[in-house]
């Protein structure tokens, strides 16, 4: 049962935040952020499995290629250190925004959120703090979500991202109290983190097509489809191939991309992907890409490669995925705009602390085309979950989105799956 202090803190935050800029609980999700501060864990445990490198890559790629052009983006660390705004930084400044030599012994939640509050002076509902944190320090028992809410009194939303299975489940309380979103990432990778950033409540002109982790020393096939909506002079196909190491410039990366609908002599191959030294990723971009099924093969010696494919386009399909959990039931809602005709199926992947559970549901229309819902009861009762939604057409993935927790309530359920 929640303690009296915890309930008091959450009640105070709810009253305090509902008065901000005239936004209530019901319409908070519709407000797009234009100032974003990443509050990141730089404690010693982030050295494990190159987690710090993956987080830095994901933040830098999202900032440089996917963030809204008019937004302001900053960084604060979960320790006593001054934060800074980085959106307009160039070259070495962006790459070194989270130096490897400045790890602290423990993460300080209150310190990071407090510094973000200083950066977001005169904060309102259009301000967002993206919290990335692993485990809470044993030597700082007072550094809780409840203490942070009472002490900082945030006037901004907090989107909490719990990293690894060791992460503090109480981080969700920050998101719930501030009408933000949340995500649980049990196995952080560059592609998984970038997927989560792509679900942030900001203005978007891109769609996530697919994401995949390619094991080292193997030829990894990645297949995806673009429909006719992609054939637009303003559309740009973006492929990010990011080895998970600190010394990307020394890696020999092999890749080959082609549209299988074309004749062999007209195959489109990525001979001009470039290593972006700011992000540590190989980036391929093609304007006005052709519709059809695309195949990408990626491989790197002695290194795992994260692959994420985006389409920059105002008109292409956008997939948004939301999740709530109540009494052991997981509710998933997805919206595709504009709707996709002749969609084969809609897959929902559920990952919990005990492993992955895959649920597959046939797409059904409800209320309007492009609106799908699913209701699932996992075989375990683990409270934290990570859900991914995938739209499949002609047997090939068309769209993908990482679901994030939301305050949306569900009045109707189209699909019921109980194991």
Automatic annotation (TrEMBL):
GO CC term, one of those recorded: protein-containing complex
Signal peptide start-end: 1-22
Keywords (A to Z) from UniProt: Signal
InterPro entries in the cross-refs: vWFA_dom_sf
Matching SUPFAM superfamilies: vWA-like
Name of the protein in its database record: VWFA domain-containing protein
Source organism of this protein record: Cloeon dipterum
